[in-house]
Amino acid sequence: MEETGIPPQKRRHGYTEQEITRRLIEAIFEQRLPPGERITENQLADIFGVSRTVVRLSMSKLSEIGVFRKTPNLGYTIASPSRAEAKMMLDVRKMIEPSMVRSIAVTRSAEHLQSLLDHIATEEAARSAGDRSTLVRLTGEFHLKLAEISGNVYLVHIMTQLQVLTCLAILVHAESETGCPRDEHSSIVNAIAQGDGEKAAAEMAHHLSHISEELQINTLRPEPSLESALRWLGAAQ
Description:
Layout: H1 17-29, E1 38-39, H2 41-48, H3 52-64, E2 68-71, E3 75-78, H4 83-107, H5 110-129, H6 132-150, H7 153-173, H8 184-193, H9 197-214, H10 226-233
Antiparallel strand pairs: 1-3, 2-3
Helix pairs in contact: 1-3, 1-6, 2-3, 4-6, 4-7, 4-8, 4-9, 5-6, 5-8, 6-7, 8-9
């Protein structure tokens, strides 16, 4: 099996709809699912050891937020956002995330702050180890962690959609591996730790602008393999 940076574990069957959805999102965060490729219910049903009905529930949920696009009799196509679509995503994120961290800087608990500091430390460990897939996933999950800390379930839902689609856009258009430059997450967390909402908002706005700049660069990059992604999906957590 292809090296993934994740310790090999015994494969199991009988995944739930929620577990399949989570696993597919993780595959996107780790940039293992290639945008524009076709994937079928039969492929996933075989990998996860479940019926097509269970897979269909998960795929339908992800299709509703634009991650997959269903074609009758052909299965699902993994979204490949255009630059125009990526710009719209980042425009919305610029409206939401600075205000989100401004509020978190005031309302966060000690436990919330420690969770963010631990996440930054884990990002740095993955970077130091050269574990690119894990680093890419963690940089995406950072933004979802902030949404979860906000305590707003609607914000979590919106940010999940935007972050997953942004990850696909980064894979298609960005020059860097993660779209999240080093130290920018740390700057946001430091401002939150200081209780400085305005600084946190400014750091987040700068961070999102940096990602927007990355998405304007058209660089040819090696595309991930659908076959290797399917093998990875079959490895249980």
